[in-house]
């Protein structure tokens, strides 16, 4: 048995006409085409590039300033189900929040998508971070950050138990005896906890992957602990190689404290690649996009990130000195820290900061030739900062087409990326094991199965 | 303008290998094929027959005795989204409960499916009727019947307001000015009620149909009132023409009390057609299916319907005299009444009753030649008992193939059913208007739209 060389994993983070907030104003995009066909094209493009997966983000409120940008009309799990029909190999990851959902619904929908897609479903587990989301779900106040993660942990305990409530071979289809399912192999979960009481069993048989791939994207203290315990892939925003290395080492180390090996959790920093035939051309493209920025839009986003209203501060001055501290932030704590640090480290004015955040909302922007971008990816990959990357094309489909046609082949030539899909399931693409359902207990287990 | 002759509407109610509880044991079915391809085949078959819609039922617990039958592995909204990609004209209706869901999620998912399918989404609105569902959603006790309908009514008020929170022309995509959406045309809903507080607006633009087609399937007193107020199509179980006529007149009359015209609400009784080249052949097929019944399965279903455990009663005796009354039933009240009435009217033993319920769970079984079945449909349609039918094939795909190839052409020859789709949307198939979003109020409406 020859050792498989370690390879880069690539996820395409799809966002309507791209991650750059002004992409929709650029002539290379067509925001009016917000149909499913647009997303089918993107998913098939990513599949042509042999990427591990595509990913759809989500939020439970109209939370950006829709006057200047809007991220699309689809709810992720319904769109993902449609995309399952238009693709055959690529993994399909969607964000679903644990804050304003019920574990039974979420476990069931992901099991269903895993069946539909024959084992290609992944769940990006988030806690809802915006006040506006609470108000759409009969809550006056948003749950605080720590409680959200406590709820998320119990949510995962329940969903994993539900996915394991059917053994793989429970369905027997015995026409002669009239026995459809071996009910000894279907068990209630009988969970009673602080946030949830769920009897189970699930009403969906165990799916091809057993559990969907579990992805996580919060990098706060609570977020890292959660990732170390539950996540199999982590999306993260890191601005410098040193920060990326520190994060990588920390999360792998924490996973060890939970009895997991470092290979069981893949770290995927976000990158926003802007490519050009020459470095100058790439920089020109970046400038073209940045010239289309509407400051009001970025200001509303940045105000939320840093927790104060920046509209009354001069655009060409620095961030105000009297900012909140990370303890005051009840939204995305790690993004708050990253933005403040970036502004201070590089002594950016608010206007400059808006420009730095426009393409990737805090994720690293790699602007350059395909060789230069590939070099950066290889550097992060071989320097202990990444197992792969969450690719966030600033404009779509163009920037993804360029990445697939120009960067992927270089990675393939260097032996760093697959030239064909070898696995069938999303777990196989990421080199992750299929979890087995826990063995049936010796006691009677049919109590929860209706007669 | 020539008057359009009134035409029959047909919905195909899809259920894995068929509605007959023993269908999976019959050599004409293949229960092991529980993949999305099976459902794609059924949806395309119904579309070939020019049917108005397909429909998927749902429940939020493993509620039938899975040892002897199981209705399939998919969650309806994810499956429906996949089927949207494999069809182009037929309507797509899924059940979602108002009892253990949140209006924001449900409004959003149906808007998303309506976008995905280009205007073909329909929502069968139910209240959850089983104790086991409560226990999957952190509730000790199931909500009582009347409270469920109160919650359902408020749920509908909120979802309709959310669908109307975007005007149709809110997205303007003005690249020059940088204005993506006209935020004066996107308004919060600011609902505060007994069960829900929802700020809105929805984070999905208004969908092709404005609202999905609203379908309802409960025939109790509360159910009829709910239908009269909200439903545009009603699925109902009626055993006799007289009962069908009475129900039809009652619901249309009630709709009038809510200021609606009789044409705005379509009544679709369920029928389970078993076809044969001769009446004898059809009856032989029915007997073949009934011979495969496992009494334990039917007994567990019937016990739930009538609200007492029937396992200790002799199969060849009548239903016990000391049954609950309809007031005692907290599940499906109308099905309870129908079953008791059927057993008493025809003096059926429990075993005979099980056989009568096996194919359609209380829906009318039409066994005969294509001509005979078409005659029955025409009779119900022209006698004030139906605007169309909810077709429940006892085994699949065979019984749907027979219906499409043998019954539909007869209805077409009689001028009772379309020979081609004329409309594009599900509402157009049913001859129902697209609701307009309510006009924007004069007051400032941007309060709920983030800056």
Question: Care to give the gist of this entry?
Answer:
Two copies of one chain form a homodimer. The first copy, chain A, has 14 helices and 13 strands.
Care to describe what's here?
Two copies of one chain form a homodimer. Chain A is an alpha/beta fold. Chain A has one domain: Luciferase-like domain (TIM Barrel). The first copy, chain A, contains 14 helices and 13 strands. In chain A, the strands form three sheets. Chain A has an eight-stranded parallel beta barrel, surrounded by eight helices. Chain A has a two-stranded antiparallel ribbon with strand order 5-6. In chain A, helix 1 (36-48) crosses helix 2, helix 3 packs across helix 5 (145-163) and helix 9 (295-306) crosses helix 11 (350-358). Chain A is globular, with a radius of gyration of 22 Å. The termini of chain A are far apart. The model of chain A is unreliable at 441-448 (pLDDT under 50).
